[in-house]
Amino acid sequence: MDAGGVFSQIKTLFQNLSAGKRITFFLLIVLASVLFFFIITWAGRPDYQLLYAKLPAAEAGEIVNWLKQQRIDYQIGANGTSILIPREKIYDVRMQMASQGLPHGGGVGFEIFDSNKLGETEFVQNINYQRALQGELSRTINNLDEVESSRVHIVMEGKSLFIEDQQPATASVVLKLKPGKYLTRPQVLGIVHLVSAAVSGLKPENVTVVDNFGKILSGFDSEMGVGGGSVEFLDYQQKVERNLESRIKSMLENVFGSSKVIVRAACKFDFKKQETTEEKYLPANKVVRSEKKSKEFSANSANIAMGIPGKTGYSANVSQSSATSANPPAYQKQDQTVNYEIGRVTSHVIEPAAKLVKTSVAVMVDGSYRPVKAKGGKTQMQYVPRSPAELQKVENIVKRAMNFDAARGDQVVVENMPFAMQKETQPAAQEKQSGWMAKLAAHKLMVKYGIAGFILFFTFLFIIRPMVRWLTGAAGSDVQLLQQLPKTVGEIESEYDARAKDLPYTDQATKLVMRDNTASMQLIRDWMKQE
């Protein structure tokens, strides 16, 4: 059958429809076209994924201009701070933009010198160098896991002919930390030394670090505050407690099973830093350091004149002395000096800044469960508490694991309590759901086309096909088919016979079958199709 015949049949069919059915047929065609267009558009729409998020307005505009030049489709979200592109182009676009130095991630860097302009003064070049240095330092600081964004402000060293008039270089760093994150003391010092080492003439004490809440992390009098280092001390205490909990819990879970043990530890530290210098002398420990001896001796000698010369008794004294003592005694003198070194002990002790003062551990152990038949033949799980001997063993194990010291005041409490069983099934259900969702997300494109195909198939099967059959079936009804058939001699005679007009349709159909077998067979076939 040629196209002209098909068109003619459709035209004849449409002309035989009533006005209401023509409107219905027209609305059906429009509805099917709109549905088909919507499904094709939805299935063919690209899957947009996040390219970059939390972008400054200037960088977002620069990235959008680059995407327009490359004729890449994009979407803007989160009030202009995020950009989305088709999923299949994400990695390629990121590599191309990285080669172009986009995004800057902390201001302009040394790429500012890629395009030098003629006629730039030395002042402009110095300003550009300062901007580039600030941008590069900000990019480096942003690589820290705890830092969301940062800004660096540098005041370069003021040059002068006189040393006393020179101004030292200074720098300020503003950090915006991620929610729930904080920097430890070594990390803050690392940022300070990073900035000071990158700028000529900048000393670490001239670098100020401030977080997004205005809290001074380093610089000026930050070390003089009472709470200086409190965050680091708290972090250290929490790490010790979590480590102790994991050690105890890992041992007990191997015995009682997973999610059957709860362990909580609390440690008390003394964070005072003390330095003690002690010097002791040991009297019993004597060592000769130096010794000095002197000895003077004189024997008998001739008479020696004594007295004052020029006086009368001078010679008399000499004669009297020689007469009374013919042999005077010898003269002897002895001196001895001994210096001793007394034993001495000097000790310089520096106490640790975190000294463990007391440890407390609380352990909750779930009991065992056994099946018990209840009324109606149902099986229920009955809770069976742990015996005192088991709890004592658990307590002994915990004491050995935590290095229990009674003199220090350590405490250990082990209790047996029933755990809520319904909570155990929730994580498994969530993991299962997340696993299915992950698989569907991995094949998102195929799932989308499959859903579109199913919608088209069921729309055609349950909406379009019944409507077409209803319209075509109504067009081939008994009366209309009878009118379309060629008139016979009996029909012509019946038009003039008043009694023939009063015959029921069944009698007319019987006469029709008797007179025209071909037309009657076609009529019966149409009836069967309608049924």
Molecular structure report:
It contains 16 helices and 14 strands. The chain has 531 residues and is of the alpha+beta class.
Q: Can you give me a brief rundown of this structure?
A:
This protein is 47% helix and 24% strand.
Q: What is the secondary structure topology, with strand pairs?
A:
Layout: H1 3-16, H2 19-44, E1 48-52, H3 57-69, E2 75-77, E3 82-86, H4 90-99, H5 122-142, E4 147-155, E5 169-177, H6 185-198, E6 202-211, E7 216-218, H7 230-256, E8 261-270, E9 275-298, H8 313-324, E10 331-350, E11 355-365, E12 368-373, E13 379-384, H9 388-402, E14 411-416, H10 422-442, H11 444-475, H12 478-484, H13 489-496, H14 498-501, H15 505-515, H16 517-530
Parallel strand pairs: 5-6, 11-14
Antiparallel strand pairs: 1-3, 2-3, 4-5, 6-7, 8-11, 9-10, 12-13
Beta strand %: 15-25%
Class from secondary-structure proportions? alpha+beta
Task: Name the quaternary structure.
Answer: single chain
First-to-last CA distance: 27 Å
Keywords:
531 residues; 24% strand; 47% helix; alpha+beta; 16 helices; four-stranded mixed β-sheet
